[in-house]
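Quick one:
INPUT:
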C-alpha cells in the first residue's frame, strides 16, 4: 500500500519531478507526511532514480523534523481542537487509535518506542509512536532520542527493501 501511495504522490508532484532539486523536494515532503514517512520517501526516491545515500539523508531529515513538534505540541493542540464541535469526534478517534497501540510501547517504554518506530510495519512510525509517547506522558527528550534512533533503524530496513529488493525487481 505504501508503494502505491508513494507512486501516487510522485505523480501528484509530477511537474517537480523534472529537476533534481524537485525530486529531492518531493521525497522530503513525502517523508514528513504521516503514513508515508521515510518509508514512502525512500520508495519514491528509488522510483525517481535518485542516489541511495543522498535520498536516505533527505528522507531521514524529513521524517525526524516533525518529531519534536509532535512530542511537545500535539497534546496542547488536541486540547484546543477538542473545544471545536466539529473536530471533537475526529480528535477522539485519533486518540482512540493511538490508545489501541499504546501497549506496544507502554511496557518497554523507550525501547518500545524505538522498536515501534523502527520496524516499518503498517500503522507504526514516528508520527504514531511520538503521539503515543505524548499520550503516555513519557519524557520528551528520551522519546525524541528513541524516535530518532527508530527512524534510523527504519531507514536502514527500507534501504534494503527499496534499493535492494524493489530495486532489483524494477531496475
Amino acid at each position: 500500500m505504501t508503494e502505491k501511495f508513494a507512486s501516487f504522490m510522485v505523480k501528484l508532484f509530477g511537474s517537480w519531478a523534472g529537476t533534481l532539486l524537485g525530486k529531492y523536494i518531493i521525497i522530503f515532503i513525502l517523508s514528513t507526511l504521516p503514513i508515508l514517512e521515510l518509508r514512502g520517501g525512500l520508495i519514491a526516491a528509488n522510483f525517481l532514480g535518485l542516489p541511495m545515500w543522498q535520498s536516505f539523508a533527505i528522507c531521514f531529515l524529513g521524517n525526524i523534523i516533525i518529531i519534536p513538534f509532535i512530542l511537545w505540541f500535539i497534546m496542547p493542540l488536541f486540547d484546543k481542537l477538542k473545544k471545536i464541535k466539529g473536530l471533537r469526534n475526529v480528535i477522539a478517534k485519533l486518540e482512540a487509535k493511538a490508545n489501541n497501540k499504546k501497549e506496544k510501547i507502554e511496557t518497554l517504554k523507550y525501547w518500545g518506542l524505538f522498536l515501534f518506530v523502527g520496524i516499518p510495519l503498517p500503522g507504526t512510525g514516528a508520527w504514531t509512536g511520538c503521539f503515543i509517547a505524548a499520550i503516555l506522558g513519557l519524557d520528551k527528550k528520551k522519546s525524541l532520542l528513541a524516535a530518532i534512533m527508530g527512524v534510523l533503524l527504519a531507514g536502514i530496513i527500507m534501504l534494503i527493501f527499496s534499493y535492494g529488493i524493489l530495486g532489483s525487481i524494477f531496475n
